[in-house]
Amino acid sequence: MPVISAPHEINMEDLYVDLRAVVDVPLYLKCESFNFAGSVKLKAAREMVLAAEREGLLAPGSVLVESSSGNLGIALSVIAASRGYGFLCVTDSRCNPASRRQMQALGAQVLTISRPDKTRGLLGARLDYVRRLCAHDPRYVWLNQYENRHNWLAHYRSTAPAIAEQFPELDVVFIGAGTTGTLMGCARWFREHRPSVTVVAVDSVGSVTFGGPPSRRLIPGLGAGVRPVLLDREAIDDVVMVEEPETIETCRAMARRGFLFGGSTGTVVSGARRWLAERPGGGSLVSVAIAPDQGDRYLDSVYDPEWVAEHYGEPVGEQLPDPRTDSASQLVGAG
């Protein structure tokens, strides 16, 4: 029976979902959400905070500050509450309301930036605010997930070796690109220890990470308006770009099978499905994708038909019958 005294002491590493019945290609999904932060970001948060403590950057009275669209903010809220620090999350309008409420429930403060930088978007505006705050008040300590080597080291030390242990015959791994911490940690580990494994990055259309033009993105988690400093393009074999309506369709397809995953997972699975379907012999490859979180934080967006219709112009995916119509009434009556 596991007994813990701090929330970061437990994280399930060996749970996978076989998605063949959902996506019609062989794909195992590594679930990274079974911890007290509910996402893969707990690994990076823990690694960065412990490193800052070792380096003497954190002391009693310190206040952590970080720019986050949600998941890292929640993870740092968990760690900060456990270790006695204050925490301020600087986010923007793409952060889910549920994520904001969860951070606040854990004692964090949440500041929402609403005016984007003219050339660097909302992320650029968030980063500028954090820099000004830290320059003005020395109590604030910025871990800077966008440049902190411990972000990717967390996955080099844990996520990639865990996948390799479970899948000794692994052919290809699919990883979403946000700050690229998870991506680069896994890519570097496989380059050094299992170079035969193909590493495929999956990103959202509208992200500038791999050189595409910036455009509107509404689903948080993946993508960036500023090219990630951590990214080493040479460590990655291929890149797949996914449109947000495709992300929503994939999330709902998984939900119809009882698996409620988040928007980032929908994007990664969409990209993996397309990459495998387009490759000769893709059906015989041993493939793993990483699921960063579950779908409970996306009930007001990805899984809300009204939100989808408002932002994408029309419903996405299979729709339920309208109870106001005669045919729907007959269907209900027949049951």
UniProtKB/TrEMBL annotation:
<keyword id="KW-0663">Pyridoxal phosphate</keyword>
<comment type="subunit">
    <text>Homodimer.</text>
</comment>
<dbReference type="InterPro" id="IPR050214">
    <property type="entry name" value="Cys_Synth/Cystath_Beta-Synth"/>
</dbReference>
<feature type="region of interest" description="Disordered">
    <location>
        <begin position="313"/>
        <end position="335"/>
    </location>
</feature>
<dbReference type="InterPro" id="IPR023927">
    <property type="entry name" value="SbnA"/>
</dbReference>
<dbReference type="InterPro" id="IPR036052">
    <property type="entry name" value="TrpB-like_PALP_sf"/>
</dbReference>
<protein>
    <submittedName>
        <fullName>2,3-diaminopropionate biosynthesis protein SbnA</fullName>
    </submittedName>
</protein>
<feature type="compositionally biased region" description="Polar residues">
    <location>
        <begin position="326"/>
        <end position="335"/>
    </location>
</feature>
<keyword id="KW-0808">Transferase</keyword>
<feature type="domain" description="Tryptophan synthase beta chain-like PALP">
    <location>
        <begin position="23"/>
        <end position="283"/>
    </location>
</feature>
<dbReference type="GO" id="GO:0016740">
    <property type="term" value="F:transferase activity"/>
</dbReference>
<dbReference type="GO" id="GO:1901605">
    <property type="term" value="P:alpha-amino acid metabolic process"/>
</dbReference>
<dbReference type="Pfam" id="PF00291">
    <property type="entry name" value="PALP"/>
</dbReference>
<dbReference type="InterPro" id="IPR001926">
    <property type="entry name" value="TrpB-like_PALP"/>
</dbReference>
